[in-house]
Amino acid sequence: MKHATTTESTDVLLVGGGIMSATLGALLTELEPTWKITLVERLDEIGKESSGVWNNAGTGHSALCELNYAPMKADGTVGTAKAVTINEQFQTSRQFWATMVEEGKLGQASDFINPVPHISMVFNDDHVRYLKARHEAFKQHKLFERMEYSEDRDQLAQWAPLTMRGRGSESVAATFAPEGTDVNFGELTRQLVAHMSANGAEVRTGTQVSNLNKESDGTWTACTTNRLDSEDSREIRAKFVFVGAGGGALPLLQKSGIPEIKGFGGFPVSGLWLRNTKPEIAEQHNAKVYGQASVGAPPMSVPHLDTRFENGEKSLLFGPYGGFKPNFLKQGSLFDLPRSVRTDNLYPMTRAGLANLDLVKYLISELMKNKEQRVEALQEYYPTADGDDWELVHAGQRVQVMRKDKEKGGVLQFGTELITAEDGSIAGLLGASPGASTAVPIMLDLLAKCFPQHKGTWQSRLTELIPAYGRTLDDDPRLADEIMGHTGGVLGIK
User: Fold this and answer.
1) Which of UniProt's keywords are assigned here (predicted)?
2) 397, 327 in Cβ contact below 8 A?
């Protein structure tokens, strides 16, 4: 017997219970408190997929230590534009979080963000020359003025003792940024969603969205089922839909039929970490130490030795070790990748794949590593590490954007891509790092594209939430000192 489908209505439907949906929901709760907001998440808890504490590195991505954001140019100089932009974006996120803490809408800041210096460390003469040039280039920018550079081993040992203990005579250099952070995006997500819920938003976990259909009046109908009770099916009619479902965003946007998603594909990359939870070892390291990526490795696979905080407990993490699984979510289906192939994206995906054979080779080599080989990689950053002290854990699944390109036919794109329908009634986010750290500016971009009619009425509240809204800090030293000093104080960052 077929059970009747319940139909509901809402102003805003958020699909996915991660940091992106939580950020957008929290912003709209502040901007339009009378709007009805509904959030649905396929798992039984909020913030457990890509936003989960061990599913990402937790780096407050501000380009302080991530070398791939500042590439060496053909003329031998280092490009800083992307790094400055990412740092500006993270400062925007910090401002929003600080305001929400000050207004009592988030809990204690140390529950989700902690000061952890960011270090870039390189080995061999060529990489040392690059890092020195990078530091020289960054010194010109206000947002990087506190960064220090050193080749002195005693200094490096003070910054990151474990990295220098037992190290050989190779060339080594590092930069040190004291204002770096570790962010528990899972906890931050849960706090943002709790704020939404306390203000009337409906939060429904264990709910799978199977389809999205546009109605003649411009609204959207989402077909949902209860993952624990297949007979509990509902249709949710929404004026606006945001698909913030991580790797699950691509298939849902494809089902929506919007022309803007045509030509897009996804390339899933899995990962593994080595984790050390021994307090006596974790207490000897307080930094996120990033190095240079292997040839062919995606930016998300840059090796790093990190301090991580979860529920006040300090641990160490090293990795990630890349891998490949065809599922788009950590708890997804092995058929996700083949099911995402369409006539409109087959050629771009093929061209992008052929152009990135180094990546394929890299992932295959990573998959074939045993624990001993993974420990050898760890020992490049922590020479005296004992493999018995470390356990292997699975990181989150990342789906890199593949898209059409006029010249190359198709390209593999690192970073995030905001997809919005022409009428602004639906939007979704594809891609990965540095997404979580830049969630606030990405959602501000979405608001501007999808709700342009509200720009004037929202301006005042947005400026309260984000004091430097619409301005750049790197070009205004006085403003930068004021904003960064205030938000740093609220969030407990130096």
Assistant:
1) FAD, Flavoprotein, Oxidoreductase, Tricarboxylic acid cycle
2) yes
Q: Which residues pair with 318 in a beta bridge?
A: 274, 305
Query: Looking up tokens 């206000």, which residue turns up?
Result: 142
Beta-strand relationship, 229-243 and 426-431: parallel
Q: What is the CATH number of domain 6-465?
A: 3.50.50.60
Per residue in 219-269, pLDDT (tens digit) is 999 999 998 777 778 999 999 999 999 999 999 999 999 999 999 999 998
pLDDT digit string (tens) for 54-63?
999 999 999 9
Q: Which of 140, 130, 53 is nearest to 291 (CA)?
A: 130
**Amino acid making up residue 184:** N
Cα–Cα distances in Å, from 139 out to 82, 148, 340? 15, 9, 45
Q: How far apart are CA 471 and CA 120, in angstroms?
A: 28
pTM score above 0.90:
yes
81-102 helix and 439-450 helix, angle to the nearest 10 degrees: 90
Cα–Cα distances (Å) from 172 to 53, 283, 287, 303, in that order, read: 31, 23, 17, 16
